[in-house]
Specification:
Family: Belongs to the LysR transcriptional regulatory family.
Domain HTH lysR-type: 1-58
Shape: elongated
CATH architecture of the largest domain: 3-Layer(aba) Sandwich
Radius of gyration: 23 Å
Strand content: 15-25%
Keywords: DNA-binding, Transcription, Transcription regulation
Distance between the termini: 74 Å
Number of helices: 10
Largest sheet: 9 strands, mixed
InterPro entries: LTTR (IPR050176), LysR_HTH_N (IPR000847), LysR_subst-bd (IPR005119), WH-like_DNA-bd_sf (IPR036388), WH_DNA-bd_sf (IPR036390)
Number of domains: 2
GO molecular function, one term: DNA binding
Length: 310
């Protein structure tokens, strides 16, 4: 048995499929299947059971899993020991909600790659909670603190959200002076049955009964607002990327949420992962502060009493 075989085994265990493991490892599914069969033959044990949903761990596979993960951790620790002082190398996969992945992580990761040329960063943007136990990501950013599971959780930073619309929409529609005025406007928000975290249920904060245009992606919502489709709650840190989008009702509707960094508990023994986590945390804090600092106050002619039809 060698590490390459165990690496294949871990990928299939985490992806529940040969094709998913192949994508993760950069090899074709047939090669993954042959390698699994070779490992099973060498061990004289069946490691996976084929089901309609994919490949599930057999009892023998369940027993092998913690040992394979221990080997993975040991190799990671060895890489730490051989790295230069302060140097970060190797691959890291970061899972994040799409707002963070689109508006924060590109700049943060660009600076990390510049500082550490041997580092390979993968950003997985998904509007759902990541499963670190299955190693869908090496670390994940979440919008609420996990309440269950053996996880390492670190609060990164608070961020702010406000109701906003594009200046062209605001000029072409009735003024918004109070929440009651929102009844005369098109609202944009999340698809109700696809809200994966209670912290994302922004629509109730506005008092609106429903949203006419919805998406499970906060980035799609922002682009709809930018296109003049209506009003919606947006991240302040996204506004600098969307010219013409303006905050409104800031005194009445001002939300604060937090980002949390979540890591697998075994990673506490990895100096490399700890250094990566700290560098990522510092980068996100700085980028949120920078972008929010670029957001102007309410523009003259668009707020309160002066927000009239052109």
């Amino acid at each position: 048995m060698d590490w390459d075989d165990l690496r294949i085994f871990l990928a299939v265990a985490r992806e529940d499929s040969l094709s998913g493991a192949g994508r993760r490892l950069g090899v074709d599914a047939s090669t993954v299947g042959r390698r699994v069969a070779r490992l099973e033959q060498a061990l004289g044990a069946t490691l996976f059971v084929k089901t309609p949903q994919g490949y599930a761990l057999a009892p023998e596979g369940e027993r092998l899993l913690p040992h394979a993960e221990a080997v993975e951790l040991a190799l990671s620790s060895a890489r730490d020991a051989l790295s230069g002082p302060g140097e970060l190398t190797g691959q890291i996969r970061i899972g994040a909600p799409d707002g963070c992945a689109n508006y924060l992580l590109p700049q943060v990761c660009a600076r990390l790659c510049e500082a550490h040329p041997g580092l390979e960063i993968q950003i997985v943007a998904l509007p759902r909670v990541f499963n670190l136990s299955r190693r869908e990501a090496d670390m994940a950013i979440a919008v609420s603190q996990p309440q269950t599971g053996r996880l390492m959780v670190q609060r990164l930073t608070d961020y702010h959200l406000h109701l906003a619309g594009h200046q062209d929409y605001l000029r072409a529609h009735p003024p918004v002076r109070t929440r009651a005025d929102l009844r005369g406007h098109r609202m944009i928000g999340y698809i109700a049955d696809m809200i994966f975290d209670r912290e994302l249920d922004y629509l109730t904060e506005t008092g609106a009964d429903w949203a006419q245009l919805t998406s499970n992606s906060v980035s799609v919502q922002m682009q709809a607002i930018r296109a003049g489709a209506g009003l919606g709650i947006v991240h302040d840190f996204a506004i600098p990327f969307c010219p013409g989008v303006r905050r409104i009702l800031t005194d009445e509707l001002s939300l604060t949420r937090s980002f949390w960094l979540i890591r697998h508990p075994d990673d506490r023994r990895s100096q490399r992962m700890s250094r990566l986590a700290e560098a990522l945390a510092q980068g996100i804090r700085a980028e949120v502060a920078r972008l929010q600092g670029l957001v102007p106050g309410l523009e003259a002619g668009l707020d309160g009493q002066s927000q009239q039809r052109a």
